Amino acid sequence: MIYALTLADARHRSTHLTVEHYDLWLGLTDDPATAETFAVTSEITHTSAEAGIVLDYLGESVTTVEVDGAPVEYLFADGQIWLEVPVDTRCSVKVAGRSRYSRTGQGLHRFTDPADGRTYLYSHFEPSDARRVYPCFDQPDLKATFSVRMSVPEGWTALANGAETDREGDSVHFAETPPMSTYLMAFAAGEYVRAGHATSEGVELGVWARASMAEFVDDEFLQITARGLPYFNEVFGYPYPWGKYDSIFVPEYNLGAMENPGLVTFTERYLFQDRATRAQHAARANTILHEMSHMWFGDLVTPRWWDDLWLKESFAEFMGADASLHVSDYAEARANFAGDRKNWAYQQDQLPTTHPIAAEIPDVDAARQNFDGITYAKGAAVLTQLVHYIGREAFFAGARDYFSAHAFSSATFADLLAALSAHTDVDLGEWADRWLRTTGPDRLDPARVGDTLTLAHEGNRPHRLDVGVYAAGRCIKGIDVTVPAEADEVTVELPAGAELVIVNDTDQTYALTGVDKRSLLWLTEHLSEIEDPLARAVVWTSLWNLCRDGRLPVADYVAIAARHAPKEDNPGMIARTLGAALQAARDYTADDTLADRLAEQLWNALGDAEPGSDAQLAIARVAIAALSSEGSGERLRTLLDARLPGLTVDNQLAWSIRAALAACGEISREELDEAHARDATLSGKTRHLRAVWAAPSAETKTELFDTVTVPGRWSNDEVDALLAAYTAPGSQPLRAHLDRRFFDWVPQIWEEHPMEIANRLVRGLYPDVAGEVPGELPAALRRVLAECADQRERAARLRALNG
């Protein structure tokens, strides 16, 4: 069994080890298109207070181990190397071995481009996958400098955190890095093309992509990057410390992006091959700035252990939206957070597996499960509340002190509190205990009698928020309200003429907020008339959570969404709201006709939308999903044949339509294959795979279950495509016979696949009804199963309420 580093062992190692430097070499010249492994050497300069040390390594084999140049005995098993070194003496340990290429997005991922046959490599190591590539002490607080050499085939680009310094034959050398954590080391190699170059604040900026995708790198990406550096340099008071700043788009990526200093990796979904809405551009800008803020929060100062993961992710989530307001044209950044990311947080926080923002993480496997809506979005929402409490100037002054005190080191929650406390009179110790060490969302429910608003408080946190009073869609008064932690309710006097009251109007706190009866009546008729997009986002979030909690009938929520969401000027809000309405209509009611009625309304909304607008495209994307049912073939064909005025049917939209037709059984394999022949790209390959396997038959579902669970057969992107086909709309009866088989096979699936893939398989194959899995299970698997079961049980409760 592969060992998962525990907090106790990490603490022990930190106490007894000082790590100074890594000298790394990767040998990638053995036909990288077909070779299963590659050569690696890792020489670590360190001092140990104990004779026995343990290195982390998930390589295929170890060839030699040397201490100060002399071979020594060692034991290599279960992802670790045991050996002995001189005590209290600076020495070097050099390990030579062979590591395995990955197809899961972990370690060193290898990809062959179906468009031109070229091979590309890139790394991803967070939280503990550096050990898949090179022997190391793989924990965040044992920082060291890194020198890197890579041997690559002729004509290949090689990239790492530091700038390339020289190239001798097939060997590429890179500048030594400042001290950093092992998981932040990064490599990329292949026929990558530099598709953009600029300079900002004296820092060289580059944008890289594979050859077949370089044409899709647009100017905006580099513009946002160039504007971001001066902003962060100023607000953080510490100049960008990592030399160059490369960004690279990589295929089959598991994440949106990763903050490797000097070499930030981005998913190719941010390369817009097809038409992208303003909302997609805004989301990309947010991600660029999120990752850039990590150069300070996370890279310069790193959490000591994964229990303080939020110290970097919550701050980056907050800063992505905040910086978007200052360096981009996307003024809707806060509305996007309020209407989208916070819903992720509320959903995660209501699961039985919820945890404090400052969580307890016993080992690295548990850390993998905590890259979730609480660590990111709830943490960012709580930081928004903190800034509102203590003031923006105090917040950034504390951040500057934090960076100055702990640069190139690691820090804890207590270190941050100390830095912030020096700039405010607020008792941050008590505030933090209530906000960061507790679970679940508070509730703030309004009721109106005349011009008096009573705000009922369920929870134990203090809140400072705005109550917005509206007439004719415009805010006529914003009332600053403080809700003490111990208060059961507070009252607020409203001005006369209030048609609508919005609790948490400017989205300054984190709580599930209700809507009073008079306001709900007004919203039913007039929601789209609210002028402020942030206020509308807050309202949409409130209504969605009321629906999910069974406090607003599903039919009412769907009616409001169908009536008002198409009128939004934010295409992201259109997509999110209509997508939520479709989920509610399909999963949260026993009325089987509601989803069909919504599909009809979306079809009509498509006809009413301005031809060629972002709104039309956003509605179309949801409408296609809604039309994935029997009898919708003619309308889907109308879209596929580009017969809707103004709607450009690009590759992405066309494949979505084909997948919907496949789920209806109304497209042939021959037509899908012909489309694939015209689109021989990575996206074309995975979209074709999804459409082919979406065929509506029980036999196909059985075969799909069998094939997707074969270890190592599919890449991470291919697994996602197959799972989407497995759960295609209307397929529940076709896979019901596999329910018991799933629960019996779960332990085997978890054991046979890397956690990244196993997590996807369990969530994607989980039946539509909760069930029991026999036997003792790993803690990480128990968490995944508990979350899946809770989602199915919530849906069942709502169906019972909404007959």
From TrEMBL:
It is an enzyme of class 3 (hydrolase). One of its GO terms (cellular component) is membrane. Its cofactor is Zn(2+). It comes from the Bacteria. Pfam families: ERAP1_C, Peptidase_M1, Peptidase_M1_N. Residues 50-184 form the Aminopeptidase N-like N-terminal domain. InterPro entries: Aminopeptidase_N-like_N (IPR045357), Aminopeptidase_N-like_N_sf (IPR042097), ERAP1-like_C_dom (IPR024571), Pept_M1_aminopeptidase (IPR012778), Peptidase_M1 (IPR001930), Peptidase_M1_aminopeptidases (IPR050344), Peptidase_M1_dom (IPR014782), Peptidase_M4/M1_CTD_sf (IPR027268). One of its GO terms (biological process) is peptide catabolic process. Its EC number is 3.4.11.2. Keywords: Aminopeptidase, Hydrolase, Metal-binding, Metalloprotease, Protease, Zinc. Residues 222-435 form the Peptidase M1 membrane alanine aminopeptidase domain. The keyword Transmembrane does not apply. It catalyses: Release of an N-terminal amino acid, Xaa-|-Yaa- from a peptide, amide or arylamide. Xaa is preferably Ala, but may be most amino acids including Pro (slow action). When a terminal hydrophobic residue is followed by a prolyl residue, the two may be released as an intact Xaa-Pro dipeptide. Belongs to the peptidase M1 family. This is Aminopeptidase N. It comes from Corynebacterium doosanense CAU 212 = DSM 45436. The lineage of its organism: Bacteria, Bacillati, Actinomycetota, Actinomycetes, Mycobacteriales.
